[in-house]
Amino acid sequence: MTFTGWLKMANRNVEIICVGNELLIGKTLNTNAHWLAKRITSLGLTVNRITVVGDNLNDISAIIKEAIQRTPCFIITTGGLGPTFDDMTLEGIAKGLGRELEENQEAMDMVRKKYERYVAEGRIDKYEMTPYRKKMAKLPKDAMPLPNPVGTAPGVLINESQVKIIVLPGVPSEMMAIFDESVAPIMRKNSGDLMFFEASLDVKEMPESQLAPLIDEVMRDNPYIYIKSHPQASEKVPHLELHLSTTSIDPKIARQRMSKAIVQISEMIKGKGGKVKPIMS
Amino acid sequence: MTFTGWLKMANRNVEIICVGNELLIGKTLNTNAHWLAKRITSLGLTVNRITVVGDNLNDISAIIKEAIQRTPCFIITTGGLGPTFDDMTLEGIAKGLGRELEENQEAMDMVRKKYERYVAEGRIDKYEMTPYRKKMAKLPKDAMPLPNPVGTAPGVLINESQVKIIVLPGVPSEMMAIFDESVAPIMRKNSGDLMFFEASLDVKEMPESQLAPLIDEVMRDNPYIYIKSHPQASEKVPHLELHLSTTSIDPKIARQRMSKAIVQISEMIKGKGGKVKPIMS
Description:
The structure is a homodimer. By secondary structure, chain A is of the alpha/beta class. Chain A is built from ten helices and twelve strands.
């Protein structure tokens, strides 16, 4: 049973969709996907797929349709929520779901209050509710805005049968703030208290091809532990990071299982002449 | 006409597929996709989609089938080429394409020569061609191995009707070395000498919602120029990066077009009380 297969049983599956040409031309490193994947995993859910598409209506609506068909419990999107012409994530999602895009009163109030505060703080002189600003409050029908504690465009929650679609901005500070304030509490409910545990070992003087059969054996003996080897930059001496992980609702059981596997693989590596030590993080 | 739509005309489309649980649990930041996207864009091709899937046979074969159906000119995969149990990219691709996986003599010679060199260099004492090592030379039928100048597992090139599938390792130094040595020359032929040009402006004291109509106007006047605004971390004063890009086979024409658009948008921003200056990189 593979790591992914095992967690699939309870549908804790999550897909991340990042929207932005800047990611496809290699201008921007996708730290949003990395941050979200780490947080979602630590909340006990499983990220099965991450997709990056451009600021293009057809591409956004296509990936939403595809992801819905795989019926994850959550789809999280980032990017494309601002006021400019190429911010079209909500329009793309509405198209993908076959819903109308309509002015959402709650979202409009959120956007208006933001501009009132910007004026009060002297960040801008005055404001008008231009079409460019109203755009940030046009949501797919029956969507719910999520407050943005640090920026203007609200996040959005859409229920599509069993799938919760969560739409977040691309600016990292805004994406993280909305996630922590509004998304993490919803996800925690879905994870059923499952937690993710991990540990790493530093292995030297043993090539990956010699380590491979040892990993196979330890994973056979420890069915709840997933082990993956990560070769480090080429050196004269073979050098790898061995990453062990498991999920459990009980930290004590998780620690026992991890310890058993770590002791077993460490002794096997030493027995074959390799060097091994824990990596503290 | 959008940026993506415009380049689609000549099928210079590329999809990147990254395989690895470490990306889905947020252990590893996907610098491979970023590096590839930048290099491929600079070679005059267009990355349309980046997908990350786990070390899972069904997920790998599914994404390969999906990507093939979108008929890009290239599919580039990274990760899952090593000797361990969860290195299954080639098996997943073979499954997705309905091809057999078979020992490739050329790949086997490449792997064997690597181990002979490791012994000669004193990195390992001796070697045997274990099943774990032979695995790196098992390729989908009619595939071609690409030499790996810095690691053990060769890259792979597979022709599937009009789509070239290029399979690269996940270790960044190996991925980059094979790309530069074997992949870039093939891609350059496909790009028809098209080049990518970009420039950035630093814009202050103008909120994105006020900039949005100016971008619309300048893009209408400059149909070959794509402009995207990137809000910077929240500050008291609004702060954005404005990224302008175009592609052309003629650097002189590209520079003229870029200059015209930069001058126009800069004057409009200043006229509305904003501050603008070029960002030198």
